[in-house]
Amino acid sequence: MAKQTTLRDLTFRHILKMFPRNQLHTITQEEQAPTQQKPSRAWSGRSLWVRHLDCGSCNGCELELNALENPVYDAQHLGIEIKSSPRHADVIAMTGPFTRNLVEAAQLTVGAMPVPRVVLIGDCAINRCIYQGSYALAERPPEIEQAIIAEVPGCPPTPQQILDALCQLKLLGSTGHSQGNAPSSE
Amino acid sequence: MNPCWEDVFHNDIGRWEERYRWEFNQDHLVLKSGESLLADYRYLHEICQLLQQQAAYLVTIVANDERRLEDECFKLYYIFSHEAEDHFLILEYALQKHNSAKNLHPEHLLSRYLLDGRAYPSIRDMIAAARSFEREIFDLFDLASVAVDGSEALASADPLSELTPGGFLLHDPYPPRLAPLETGRKLEDIRKEIERYTAPTIAASDTSNGKPHEVLLSVGPIHAGIIEAGRFSFHIAGETVDDLDIQLGFKHKGIEKLFQTKFSVLDGWQLAERISGDSSFSHSLAYCHAVEALARVDVPTKATWLRGLILELERLYNHVADSAALAHDVAFNLISSEMAVIREYLVRLNAELTGHRLLRGVIRPGGIIFPPDQVKAIDSMTIDRMIHQASRKRFGTLKDLGETFHELGELLLRTPAFRDRALNTGTLTRSQALASGTTGLIARASGMEQRDFRISHPFGIYKLEPKLQEMVDLRAHVQHNQASKKLRMSGDVFSRLEMRLHEVDTSFQVIQHILQTLAITPADTLLAPDTKEAIRRAENFEFALGYVESWRGDIVYWLMKDRFNKIFRCKVRDPSFLNWPALRLAVIPDDPTQPDATGNILPDFPVINKSFNLSYSGHDL
User: Fold this and answer.
1) What is the Cα–Cα distance from B110 to B100, expressed in whole angstroms?
2) Considering CB atoms only, which of A52, A101, A106 is closest to B171?
3) Which residues in chain B have Cβ-Cβ distances shorter than 8 Å to A66?
């Protein structure tokens, strides 16, 4: 089987480059078209349920995530819904540079997902940005690190950028990309 | 001595002067501590008692490691403010080594603190707001506050039993007595020390320490929604919440240490912007005020006006967002959606004006700077054009938007279902607010009309234009309006919303007034030219205060630079730090014997919490 594309090390901009918006539809259809190869398992359909997890952000990213629910962006009409339990979520939107005091809570939250998948929201989640080097920040434990499937840069990213990223992710998920650390179906 | 502080100290000045040295400065006067520790215990108490009686209010306590400086000891700075006085009163307290061995048991932990010069008298019994500060200082500096009523108590008191539970900012992952903020300790070393440490596993403790049949409901630190992290433990027996423990510190990012180790005075605004995202501009403005006070930089007048305008824009979008969120929490979706749309338009106006939706990146010590591709001509017309564009042609002017929002607010306040939910819910009485040292909008909604730095410590634009002070002055509003338009100000959820809506209205007025006067052309200088030079010339190891009345309340920065123009110590005090204890008081019953009549039920908590809307990140730093 061909090596599956992982988005682990790619930023959202890379993803956009790989799948320009006007081509995305065709790509999706191609991928879904029956081929000789066994199609990889899709983990999202026409919706994407998101759980927010704050790991010490400055609350700028929270403001912009909140804005997704207002009628201007109205993420729900695209099937993107913010859920209140990680057990219901397809992905976790993780914000903040990962503080030591939240390590345990974050592990429990990600561990409670059926299949752990994490999207990093904001620069400080991606590379700690301005907080780099602080004594109060911890390394992300491997189970969270492995579950990261996409990154949305920005300080904070605008709601439009977050929405675009989540939509792309939804489509990629429906083609079986970015499995996270789901047990392989083979 | 200033007239007001003179009043406070009556005729006893002579007595204080024996022990203390007064020093005057631009915006504050300093009371320096004398020689002997034990003598000072009593004096510090006496002064604090006096200040408490005279309704002075504790702004912040700054601990500073000055062991390598002139006085070779830790120092505490107690900063007080009085509503009738523009100058701050700063009590400087030097912690001294306590060598008299007669009361000390060598094995006793406390005696170690005393011998090291790490113990200081606690004032939390007199001033409730000091409690959080003392716990913070214990975590970050390893200085213990000792309850004192005489020197005998020193040996027997165990200061740690009071201070340690759970850790305030440094939780289980951190080794005890870490003291990360001591100067001279490298970030690298602190990190290694923490990583070497493994927390002892403690058997799950018995949580039934409450009354019989009481349920402890622990919520958090991760909440079901897009909220920050903090733990609330509700003690419930029946329907009402009997008690509430709020545990914060989960988002502790070591910001004050980062200020010390990684930023020069000129660059610190970047970190200040990221302390609490929703108050990005006010935090960086307060930081810049501190730098400008330290270096005595004169900000160009037009830049000051522009800062005033941006500060009001921040106040607007946050108050609008909060009103929307409160309407959402009581399930009034029509209002909440409409308000959220208006909030989005305002944020887009921010982006049009400054290039960033949360107003980041425009402020510098010494003025304002715009990105090169941004419009540089700003007047009433351009703002209206921007809002026209931002609102997709729905609103022609900013005034239209203000009127629409006002109508929505009135509708919300009139709706019986909302009144039923909000009236008498989560009441924080005036005396509670006063005693717990509450500040900002929360305090004003509880009837403390004067707790407003725009009036009591005017800064920037409010100093330049007294007319603006009149506009925001609640006292004038209360006096001039008829009974029908009076604000409720009784400290419940309703009052807090009403106060928010009122502040939105005054904010629109202030913006109108600014735009009538302000006309910025590309030719204007908005940045003082020689800030860097001025910082270099400024005295090393002198401190300066910077303060701003943000939308949440007063933000205070205490800044000291070292001889390399780096930050020696930057203490940040977000209004949330003082207001979190007040949230507990608002939730628990006023009269514990009659919880049903005076308490709140569990589903009220989200509404009360939302009406406070405090910053977790600003508290945890």
Assistant:
1) 14
2) A101
3) 226, 321, 325
Q: What is the pLDDT of residues A36-85, one digit of tens each?
A: 444 467 788 888 999 999 999 999 999 999 999 999 999 999 999 999 89
B504-559 pLDDT, tens digit per residue, is: 999 999 999 999 888 888 777 888 888 888 888 888 888 888 999 999 999 999 99
Cβ within 8 Å, pair A67-B347: yes
| Any domain includes A29 | no
Is residue A62 less than 8 Å (CB to CB) from chain B? yes
Residue partners of A77: CB distance under 8 A and separation at least 6: none
pLDDT at B115 over 80: no
Q: Which two tokens stand for residue A43?
A: 């983990």
Q: Is the pLDDT of residue B343 over 90?
A: yes
Q: Is the pLDDT of residue B255 over 70?
A: yes
Of A18-32, A113-127, B215-229, minimum mean pLDDT range: A18-32
Q: What is the CATH number of the domain that holds A54?
A: 3.40.50.12280
Q: Which domains does chain B have, with CATH numbers?
A: 3-195 (3.30.460.80), 255-620 (1.10.645.10)
A20 in any annotated domain: no
What are φ and ψ of residue B403, in 5° steps? Answer: -65, -45
Please give the residue range of the domain that contains residue A162: 43-174
B211-214, long-range: CB < 8 A, 24+ apart: B211/B235, B211/B237, B211/B242, B213/B237, B214/B242
Q: Are B213 and B238 in contact (CB under 8 A)?
A: no
* Partner residue opposite B228 with nearest CB, options A54, A124, A158: A54
Q: How many CB pairs under 8 A join A and B?
A: 145
DSSP string, B39-64: HHHHHHHHHHHHHHHTT-EEEEEEEE
Q: Do B616 and A59 touch (CB under 8 A)?
A: yes
Contact A121, A11 (CB under 8 A): no
Q: Which residue has the tokens 């992290």?
A: B229
Whole-structure pTM value: 0.88
Q: Do B229 and A63 touch (CB under 8 A)?
A: no
The single residue listed with the structure tokens 């629109």 is B508
Rounded CA separation B343/B339 (Å): 6
| Best A62, A87, A101 residue to mutate vs chain B (most B CBs within 10 Å) | A101
Residues of A in contact with B250 (CB under 8 A): 56, 99, 101-102, 105
What residue of B is the nearest CA neighbor of A132?
B258
Structure tokens belonging to residue B261: 């180790």
Note the pLDDT tens digit of each residue in A85-101. 999 999 999 999 999 99
Helix (H) / strand (E) containing A70: none
Alpha helices in B170-254 (DSSP H): 187-196
In this prediction, residue A36 carries a pLDDT of: 45
CB A37 within 8 A of CB A1: yes
Predicted complex ipTM: 0.85
Q: Which amino acid is at B125?
A: D
Nearest-CA neighbor of B268 among B293, B290, B241? B290
Nearest chain B Cα to A109, which residue? Answer: B222
- Does the distance separating the beta carbons of B226 and A99 come in below 8 Å? no
In chain A, residues with a C-beta closer than 8 Å to the C-beta of B277 are 57-63, 156
Domains contained in chain A, number: 1
